[in-house]
Amino acid sequence: MKLIDSHAHLQFKNYDEDREKILRQCSEQGVGMILVGCDYSSSKSVCDLADQYHSQGIWSAVGQHPTDTALPFIKKDFHELIKNSSRVVGIGECGLDYYHLPKDDTAIALQEKQKELFREHLFLAHESHLPLIIHCRDAHDDMIQTLTDHFAAGGKEPILHPREHGVMHCFTGTLPYAQSYLDLGFLISFTGIITFARQYDEVVSAVPLEKILIETDSPFLTPVPFRGKKNSPVNVKYVAERIAKIKGISFEKVAQVTTENAKRLFRLLLP
To answer: How far is C-alpha 91 from the chain's CA centre?
Structure first.
C-alpha cells in the first residue's frame, strides 16, 4: 500500500455508476482508504463496502455528522455495526459544525445539541477502543474545551497508541489550534484544500510529518489539477505532493510516513 486516503465517502449515491471503476483504479495504484459514515444508514453502507472489498485495502468508520442532530443517535446500533464487521477502524465522522447554524438566538440550543451528540461519540470511541475522526468547522474553541473536559473527567486514557486519540479531519484551522489538538493527542489531516489555498502552508510546515494524515474527503474538495470535478481517492497523491513541496522533502517520504501514521492510529494490518 503506497498511500492511504484516511477519509472518503464512496458510499454516496453519486458513485453508484463508477464506484467499481474507482476502486479498481485505487487498487492498481496502491491506494487504500477509510470510508467514513455520516449517519447510521451511511455507516452501514461503508461497513458493507469495506467487508466486500476488504482485499483491496478498504476499511470503514461509523458515526453521525454534527449537522444531523435531527436524526436519532442510537449508540447500541453503532455498537452492532462495529461488532458485525472486522473492518471498522474508527468512530466518525463526528464533531461540531457551527458554519451552517442560523445567526440568531436558536444557534445556542443547536450548538448544545451538537455537543451532546459529539459526547455520545466520545463515549462510543472509548467503549469500542477506536480512534475518533473529528469534523470541526467554525467551532474550534468549543471543540478544544469539550475534548479537554472529557479527558479530564476520566476519558484521558489513550485509546490506542500513547497520546493518540484520533484525527482532526480536513483541518482548516490556525497553527495555534493545530498545536492544541496535537497537545490533546490528535493527528492532523489535510485535504486537497492545501493544493489551492496558500493560507494553510504555515500549518502544514509546522505540524510534524509523524502527526499528519492525508485524505480526499471524496467526493468533495477536489485538488488541483482537477478542481470542479468529482473527487476520487486516487487524487490523494496530490495532497501528498503538496505537503512534500511545502516541507521540502520527497513525495516518497510523505507517502511512507503518512501511511505508517494511518497504520498506527487505526491499527491497519498491512505489510
So the answer is: 9
